[in-house]
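CO-FOLDING WORKSHEET

Operator: S.A.
Ligand of interest: zinc ion
Run index: 336
Mode: holo prediction, single chain
Checklist:
[x] sequence pasted
[x] SMILES validated
[ ] output reviewed
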Amino acid sequence: MKQLRFIFIFLFLTLSFACENKIIINESENKIVNNEPKEENKLQTPINSQPSVSSQPPFKTSEDLNNLIKAMKAVEPFFKPMSEPTADEWLANFKEDGQTFEQYAGGNPILPTPERKTLYIQPLGAFDSKQQKIIELTVEYMQKFFDLPVKRLPQKKFEEPLSPDNYRTNQFTKKRQIRAGFVLEEILQPNLPKDAAALIAFTNEDLFLDKNVRFVFGQASLKDRVAVWSLFRLDDYADFEKFLKRTLKVAVHETGHMFSFAHCTKYECVMSGTNHLGETDRHPIDVCPECMAKISWMSEYEPKKRYENLAEFCRTHNLKKDYVEFSRKAFAVGKN
Ligand SMILES: [Zn+2]
Ligand SMILES: [Zn+2]
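OUTPUT RECEIVED:
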């Protein structure tokens, strides 16, 4: 056993480039909507220090590893290589190198541990029935996506009145905005369950960071394993399916960051950076072969099983194109 573990680690170390355990510390999402000016720094992940979840990478035999590499090859044709970005797109504005599976595995990533592997979802605020449904489906998708336990906590309301430091009125929407840092520090951190890999709140309220930024979609603290994401702007110009897909993308993208996934630059991938909702809409709801391998390795999740589970989700919830795509991927990796 020890020898196989050594082979596995050696293989990764030799394949790996010099890779610091880099976690995205700042990301922004621009949004062009209504009469609001173009915005910056919409999605912030600003707090970063030593990871608080760490473990040895899960053990795999060299045969497991070979099968994983075959599965990566088998699904390559389903993904578009990243194209040259236009001026308003993420990669035109942020220089990023991407992160292959080998770089990830060799970079001492944050991984779920037996003691801390549950993803907790905290609905925060008052949701309408459509938003409730979106959250319910997101919980189900995340479970099938990462093969980790996902628990939805009972809905919580903000304790009114809020302190004036923690909210303001947006001058364009005339709606209340909540300070994202307040949610992280005062609502989520004190309530982080012991077995949580991460605690992620969804709110229907608009969020802001500080006076310099008009709004943010969300904010995460990787060190403290807490994050808050707003549904407030994700349904702009969107039918139910588009609203759902945007939410699924935000949820798995940010959860990926919680486990040290960097932005993907090799393929159009749900882990690619996005500068506006148009770019988000263009990305698939799935991860590319490199990121699929990260999930499979991290959670010991067999690729065929993963694609079948995701196909089943899409079939059940009427995402027809995605159902066909996931089914074809399951078939492709099953031929190996
Ligand atoms: Zn990101
Ligand atoms: Zn990727």
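REVIEW:
Strands lie at 43-47, 118-124, 150-152, 167-169, 176-179, 196-203, 206-208, 218-221, 226-230.
The pocket of zinc ion (ligand 2) is lined by residues 264, 267, 269, 271, 287-288, 290-291 (CB under 6 Å).
[x] output reviewed
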